[in-house]
Amino acid sequence: MYRTILIVAALLACQGARAATYATLCHDCSPQQRSNAAMSLTDEGTVYVFDDVRGEVARFGVGSETVDTVPPSVVRHTWWMSVPQDLRSAFSDYVDSREDLQDMGPLVLPTNFEVRSIAGVLLDPNHATTAIETWFSEQDEVEVFINQLTALMSKLVTLQIPMTANALVDRVVLTIEFPDGSSMDFTMETSMNTRNSKLGVELVPSGNARTADGRAAPNHAISYRGRTFFDHDGSLLEWIALARDAGIPIVRAGGSGSGTIMRCVVQDNHVICRVIHKPR
Fold first, then answer.
1. Distance between CA atoms of 192 and 210, rounded to whole angstroms?
2. Nearest Cα to 144, choosing from 87, 199, 206, 189?
3. Taking 80 as the threshold, does the pLDDT of residue 163 lie above it?
4. Cα–chain-centroid distance for residue 85?
5. For the chain, how big is the Rg over CA atoms in Å?
6. Which of 35, 58, 123, 220 has the fewest beta carbons under 10 Å from its own?
7. Residue 194, helix vs strand vs coil
8. Closest CA to 114 of 94, 89, 100, 131
9. Which CA distances in Å does 116 have to 18, 90, 120, 132, 233?
10. What is the model's pLDDT at position 257?
11. pTM for the complete prediction?
12. CB 46 within 8 A of CB 55
């Protein structure tokens, strides 16, 4: 005789000490997709589903029905549960602040920024990202974002919802434009200051490096052929160093100095770059 054991909401409530709480993130998901996401995490417990596109939070109870077949099969069930209003508001405010940050479009570094081009990032990513993060953290939209994320994390800790800050900022990619017009995408992550327990942001280079003309940035000697690089208050020094790093000989012509143009050509089946100094 087959026996079916149905774990219903009342039984889950009585066994609250055993039922765990889970959390997951979804992106513009339907009610059914949210329910499926909850069922994918556990056979028994409570699951919060955060939709970071709609700025909505759903809460499900999850139970399972074990059917005594050969082999035994488990059928999961979900039911909707209420979500605390302060959690709804905190998450909605966080999503709004994140959208405001992303709506800034390409973030343009000031003309006097110490890293002049993406070549500076490719050469020394630790130095460059630290400098960018310092400037980035001073922007008003970033301060609002951090405040809203901190408030949300406080609610999650209070409600014992296991969602990390880095999970919440999933898919946040920002394009940063450098003084010479080159640009690169950076992924935003979070970090905790252990001295004051405050959240901060970290930027990690994530690709799509482009020169000012929109072309992909060279990362190998062969990619330099036929390319011309211009000087923008010192940016050419970084491009020269990056070309050297790729093993390309640098030839100076037309005078001394760092030069105002670097033109890279193929000569005797090798790529060389000529730095042409324009006299003032």
1. 31
2. 199
3. yes
4. 28
5. 27
6. 220
7. coil
8. 131
9. 57, 38, 7, 11, 8
10. 47
11. 0.79
12. no
Looking up tokens 């992303």 gives: 102
In angstroms, rounded to a whole number, what is the distance separating the alpha carbons of residues 202 and 129? 8
CA gap 75, 95 in Å, rounded:
34
8 Å CB contact between 46 and 54 = no
- Look over the chain and give the mean of its residue pLDDT values, rounded to a whole number: 87
Both tokens of residue 30? 């339907």
Q: Which two tokens stand for residue 204?
A: 């990690």
Which amino acid is residue 232, in one-letter code? H
Q: Could you tell me the two tokens for 39? A: 């069922």
Q: How many residues does the chain have?
A: 280
- The end-to-end CA distance of the chain, in Å, is 97
Using CB atoms within 10 A of its CB, is residue 69 exposed (0-12), middle (13-18) or buried (19+)? exposed
Q: Which residue has the tokens 């020094």?
A: 237
